[in-house]
Design a protein that fits this description.
- The structure holds two protein chains of two kinds.
- In chain A, 0% of the residues lie in helices and 46% in strands.
- Chain A is mostly beta strands.
- In chain A, the strands form two sheets. In chain A, strands 2, 4, 5, 8, 9 and 10 form a six-stranded mixed sheet that branches. Chain A has a four-stranded antiparallel sheet with strand order 1-3-7-6, with no helix packed on it.
- The termini of chain A are far apart.
- Chain B is mainly beta.
- Chain B is 0% helix and 57% strand.
- Chain B has no helices and eleven strands.
- In chain B, the strands form two sheets. In chain B, strands 2, 4, 5, 9, 10 and 11 form a six-stranded mixed sheet that branches. A five-stranded antiparallel sheet of chain B has the order 1-3-8-7-6, with no helix packed on it.
- The N and C termini of chain B lie far apart (37 Å).
- Classes of the chains: A mainly beta, B mainly beta.
- The interface between A and B is medium-sized, with 21 and 24 residues.
């Protein structure tokens, strides 16, 4: 497809379990972002990948959160020992260059529910 | 950290009316962008205005930017029911930071 693809679209997990969320960016897009959106709230920046540079992890809320981007394409966001406050929609976005004039293209998100 | 703050948080208007949403931000920016989010979907880019511009038009959208006041407004003219969505401003200072959004409801 032509857009950003995220999987799964919905994930229900028990507190304490680990989860992996996947993002397939648009082909050729070098920049990739992860955001978290709680119900009725704005977007909270989590992590940013740009090409082969070291990722900007400044938004990760705790060391239970990690992300990687293999081969400059697909990215996986991992949440270990999930907590109920981790429940949110996790949005991935990519852009062509990460430059100031390259808008973000978003996936439809993964809705995570921690019971 | 969250840069933008949209105002109002919620707006309800009749179809055909104009909708104005405002955004304030905190630091210097390279550009400001507006995005739209339909319920249960990701965000879609609407319009970008560079920091050296004061106004930009695109179809029924008009964006203004006042860097001295660190604020921007998005005007949607002749609104339609299909414009019902949440609207977010995003500032780019090397990172993209989004506001809390304005929820717009256009009543047919």
């Amino acid at each position: 497809g032509a857009g950003v693809s995220q999987s799964p679209s919905n994930k229900v997990t028990e507190k304490g379990k680990d989860v992996e969320l996947r993002c397939d960016p648009i082909s050729g897009h070098t920049a990739l972002y992860w955001y978290r959106q709680s119900l009725g709230q704005g977007l909270e920046f989590l992590i940013y990948f740009q090409g082969n540079s070291a990722p900007d992890k400044s938004g990760l809320p705790s060391d239970r959160f990690s992300a990687e981007r293999t081969g400059g394409s697909v990215s996986t966001l991992t949440i270990q020992r999930t907590q109920q406050e981790d429940s949110a929609v996790y949005l991935c976005a990519s852009s062509l260059t990460g430059s100031e004039v390259s808008p973000l293209h978003f996936g439809n998100g993964t809705r995570l529910t921690v019971t | 950290s969250q840069q933008g703050e949209e105002d109002p948080q919620a707006l309800s208007i009749q179809e055909g009316e104009n909708a104005t949403m405002n955004c304030s931000y905190k630091t210097s920016i390279n550009n400001l962008q507006w995005y739209r989010q339909n319920s249960g979907r990701g965000l879609v880019h609407l319009i970008l205005i560079r920091s050296n511009k004061r106004e930009k038009h695109s179809g029924r959208l008009r964006v203004t930017l006042d860097t001295s006041k660190k604020s921007s407004s998005l005007l949607i003219t002749a609104s339609r029911a299909a414009d019902t969505a949440s609207y977010f401003c995003a500032t780019d200072d090397g990172q993209f930071y989004f506001g809390t959004g304005t929820s717009l409801t256009v009543i047919p």
